[in-house]
Amino acid sequence: MLFNSSIYLKQVKKEINDIIHNLNSTTLCFTGHRSQKLPWGFNEVDERCLKMKKILCLEIEKSILQGYKTFLCGMALGFDMICAEIVLNFKKKYKDIKLVGAIPCKNQDSKWNIKQKKRYRKILNQLDTIRCIYKKYNGARCMIERNNFMVNNSSKMIALFNGIDGGTKKTIDYAKKLGLEIVIIKP
Length: 187
What we know:
Largest sheet: 6 strands, parallel
Order of helices and strands: HEHEHEHEHEHE
Number of helices: 6
Number of strands: 6
CATH class: Alpha Beta
Strand order of the largest sheet: 4-3-2-1-5-6
Distance between the termini: 62 Å
Shape: globular
């Protein structure tokens, strides 16, 4: 019997893709708007924000019950930090889930105010691990690469999206292209 290297390579490639898919099949990422683009701004006790948080809690717990164990969060102001805090709260009930901070650069919080930095660092200290894309901010590219990293390593996404073009839309479009299951929450 002759060895057909092209058939063998296709089989190996399929097996590698299956392994990657299985690893990603229990990983979920978040994307959404920063506080400045949300109708409630930084006021997280606003009725609309509280309603969104309730829906988000239901979607996260539903995902945990579906078998999602790892949650990737970009750790930006707004939706990202809300997601991180909710997952951290669920870790008390579901001991086997993990929260991974996918940060674009080490100095992501350099222009934030003291209160925002304190919240950010409190969350960072509770993460299971951190994936830092760049040492220093180098423009929008590091944000895009952070978002792509999260999508590339997930099979499901929960997004807070108001329909407006920008980074969140681009991340959702990329997730659609890769075939992720996407849950969209409207602010």
